[in-house]
Amino acid sequence: MGALLLALLLAAPPGADTLPPFADAATARVVAHAIARQSDQDTLVSGYSARLHYRLSVAFGRRRWARIPAFGVEEQDALVHWQRPNDIRVDVLGQRERSRSPDADISSGFDRPWFIPRALGDSVRILDSDFPARAALHPFAPDGPAWYRYALTDSVRVGDGRGGMITLLGITVVPRRDGPALVAGTIWVDEASWDVVRFSFRFVGTGLWAVPEHPTHTDSSDAIRDNRWANRILTVDVDLEYALEDRRYWMPYRQVLSGQVVIPFVGDIVIPFTVSTTFDDYAINTGRTITFALALPDTSTAGVHSSGADSDRTEIRDSTGRRDVAGRLEGGGRYELHVPPRDSLKAYAGWTDSLVLDRADDQRADLLQIQHQLADLAEDLPREMTGAPGAGPTLEHLADAFRYERVQGLALGYGWKAPIPGVRFTSVYGAARYGFSDSRITGRVELIRESPVGRWTLRGYREVAPVERAFPPGDLANSVDALFTAHDAADWALVQGGELRYETSVAMGTDLSLAGRVDDERSVSTRARSAVNDLLGGDGRFQPTPPVAEGVFGGVTARLDIRRGAARWMAGADLLAGGAGATAKVFGEWRAPLWSAARAPALTLRGGIATAHPLPQSAFRIGGPWTARGFTYGSALGAAFWAAQLDLPLARGAVRPVAFADAAEAGTLDGVLRAPVLADAGVGLSILGGAVRFDLSQPLTGSAHGPRFDIVFGAAR
Question: How far apart are CA 415 and CA 58, in angstroms?
Fold first, then answer.
């Protein structure tokens, strides 16, 4: 039988690929044994019970490969009972969550078991019977060689914990041709039993996330469009590990789904998430049968069950919040899920450790290594399968399409990006923009290498750019505020030249950015007037744009951003030198709540010092949303400055009022502490933790008049 199976595998149809399915004969023999084992499902285990630990982690940040601290986590403890052929009962015991925002609610619920209780079948899904929408083909399914290429890449010997040794064989698997639902990854098998002991893979394919509801051309076209869009913004990696129990049974040990959602067009925002389930305290083949408490739904009719939802499950809820769910599983078997009331979950006393936002270093490093390996495999696959964008119109930042400031006024643009054939992780991007107030065309061309070790960007540009490199304004934040209130929190110059930039994460929550540039800098003048602000009752007038020292300059900038818990630090240095002079400066920022509480005030401190008599474009500026909110940007400037901002939430919730006060000084090196202090106070309305704020501020010192109104995006940055 084995010889016949091997012969059939070697003769597997090549599909659209001229490569054979196996790298060599040794690989073919190993895969033949693994496919035979896959077809002959495990009969050693008739049932088991175990403790489950579930953890969900979600984060928000920038840059695809940044090591971003978790924003919030949730954990659940549960008991699972499983018996052949595939019956499952899950009893949730406790639940806890923690986040960086007191207003966030990090919690999840399931209508069916979310884990893989034994081994995967020929179809690969994770978390839910509908995730992904189309099940991927398992590489060890009988028709796997028609779709995959296999290579035996590694062999290791490990101890079994009792003095014996186990030989594990690593097989790399990638699709040979396009398909709707496939995987790319590495499978480790036990040479003695041919059981899968670890399977790390990425979902790839042209039809993973949406399937046509009906066999019509319209539904098929919609599904193709939806899959392309989903592949572009969503990446999902899975790592399934098994542990040897009682020296006989390869049982589920850890199942990790890690992914990332990339939000396009808004400044490279990413949302990484990780869902992990671990198993321990096994009791195997005890002979105990599962006690089910609920009746399965009657599938002979489409009757409405107590849930009022699906016809394939029964759900019962009571006034305390308790949930009991029963249903049928794909491929046979039934399940029950029992969830106590929320107060009982919170009162669970079985936790053996404290809930932390970020996992231990060894676990984090293992996950990163898996993600990097899967990214390397996916990089060589057709872009239609992985979602990597091909050549076409795109935007690296929203400002490439829309920006509004006092020099160019409304500036509209267009971007185009294309991968470079044969160069991994690398693309070229170009953008052009037209300013309606100054009738100036600007743009840039970038060569971008975005790899797991960091991002390199080589760019040439002709742009109207902010001169402040220590605390640059956010494009969207500044554009909205300028359009509606005629407040521009930047000074501008026409800059033409080139820059090489490197960005990387040196540790969890610690990002390093290094840049060198050579450019020609020229003064520009205020040309815009906000008709929207005029229409809303203002005068639409912006402050004048101050001149810069003109000429060719060389510059270097270094910046370190650190986030630890709720606190953030930033430290940076910049050098600019040319025929008109030279300026070196250092600067920093610290932000944190004053104590740990839902309505604790938050303090932000900023400061910097430069060499004497700085170039105009290198001087520090105060005024505006990030230093003194009641004053116009650039109300004071100098070789040194300090600024303090205090924000006091007045209530909890997604929409909450805030009171604030600011103080700032800027001046010469020896006179900054004797310069006039700009002080203000005000009230604001914060939405979604400061994602959007409406601030009304009143100057308390100086000659500025008030009150002043601002719309601030990313106020919690």
Answer: 30
